[in-house]
Design goal:
Blueprint (H helix, E strand, L loop, with lengths): L3 E6 L6 H14 L6 E6 L2 H11 L5 E5 L16 H6 L2 E6 L2 H6 L4 H13 L3 E6 L3 H5 L3 H13 L4 H5 L2 E4 L13 H18 L2 H6 L2 E4 L7 H5 L6 E4 L6 H15 L1
Parallel strand pairs: 1-2, 1-8, 2-3, 3-4, 4-5, 5-6, 6-7, 7-8
Bound molecules: 1,3-dihydroxyacetonephosphate.
Length: about 260
């Protein structure tokens, strides 16, 4: 089994001081995980305070929720990979469905963001997933293949090794209706097959493929106990230290 990765995507939640309180609370609840890597992705405005609260020896890593593909320049409101690195980020989420649907982000932009992240030493977490209409018209696999093709084009084997994929069906995000493992596992298999075909099977087999969409302490065991699912990208349930701690502890027991 690949080592689990649990990522908390805070979305547009928590001020800098709330972030510090959350981190202190979480660190008190969770002993250093042995079988899972854990990332929190606060808003840009809380990254600096979060980094200070984490200190140097924390088992928790810092991620960002987005980035711009240029390193600097006249891009009002944007944040670049070197800026995120400087704040201690190791990971960055790219292509989240909220960015695709609410901000009209396209695969070509996602591809440039992944390249920029890799160039500056950040590990991208690429989100892919189909809408309900696409699932109902049996287009899940073709939609995801198109997203992967457009977003990962031109990556070397070494680049791919630093990438994580998160399968997040749009219909499962924030709805309380998580996908079933019967729905998730075939998609994960087809993602891995896509990676094997485009790169080497050795590299493809090391890439972590997460599930995201209404993951909770109640259903987390199903996903984290599945060999085809390498971890979770958690939204709502990561905002509460108690429920996020429970999801981390599920990863610990299921992957031990
Ligand atoms: P929820 O866990 O709130 O469904 O959000 C999932 C998500 O979008 C994580 O990136």
């Amino acid at each position: 089994m690949r080592r689990a990765l649990i990522v908390g995507n805070w979305k547009m939640n928590k001020t800098a001081s709330e972030a510090v309180a959350f981190i202190r609370d979480l660190q008190e609840r969770v002993p250093t995980p042995l079988h899972a890597d854990v990332v929190i992705a606060p808003p840009f405005t809380a990254l600096e305070s979060a980094r200070k609260a984490l200190g140097t020896s924390s088992w928790l890593s810092l991620g960002a929720q987005d980035l711009h593909w240029e390193a600097q320049g006249a891009f009002t409101g944007e944040v670049s990979a070197p800026m995120l690195r400087d704040l201690g980020c190791r990971y960055v989420i790219v292509g989240h469905s909220e960015r695709r649907t609410l901000f009209d982000e396209r695969d070509e932009q996602v591809r440039k963001k992944i390249k920029a992240a890799l160039t500056h030493g950040l590990s991208p977490i690429l989100c892919v997933g189909e809408s309900l209409a696409e699932r109902e018209s049996c287009r899940t696999e073709s939609v995801i293949t198109a997203q992967l093709t457009g977003s990962l084009a031109g990556l070397t084997t070494q680049d791919l090794a630093a990438v994580t994929i998160a399968y997040e069906p749009v219909w499962a995000i924030g709805t309380g209706q998580a996908a079933t493992t019967d729905q998730v596992v075939p998609v994960h298999r087809s993602i891995r097959l896509f990676l094997e075909t485009g790169w080497t099977s050795q590299t493809a087999s090391a890439v972590r493929i997460l599930y995201g969409g209404s993951v909770t302490p109640q259903n987390g065991k199903l996903f984290l106990g599945s060999e085809a699912i390498d971890g979770a990208l958690v939204g709502g349930a990561c905002l509460n230290p108690d429920s996020f701690a429970t999801i981390i502890s599920l990863a610990e027991t299921e992957r031990a």
